[in-house]
Amino acid sequence: MNKKLLITDVDNTLFDWQEVWYQTFSAMVGQVLSISGVDEERLYAECSAIHQRYGTSEYSQILGELPCLQELYGDNIYDHMAPAIDAFRAARRDALRLYPGVLETLGTLNCEGVAGLFSSPNRSAAHGAREARRERRRIDPGGSYPSG
Asked: Mean pLDDT, to the nearest integer, of 106-117?
């Protein structure tokens, strides 16, 4: 029986989600501290409270909800924190790497006509799945892939 569909979780299966999260969050927080001068312990405590409130450490609007930044910048938080967001994005580009052998395996499966369905509750993982699809397109530009 030929298999035609691979269904897999992405984070910590295709790439190291924890490392990506650590690198991106650390880069962002470093810039927030540098730009704002807020107390580091207060910043981490407020981040933790927001992570707990939303049940995820990947809440994308966290900067806008931090009381310490609201006090300093009011409605202009994102204008002041643009370098922190840029640092987050740069760290994600640098840290988001597929585990060894994943790209080759996906390429082989693609050549054999196996489609992939990638799943994750994490936003960074969704980004990782898009990166994997881009790499598959690079290997086999004529292949048929879902959008993303």
From this structure: 89
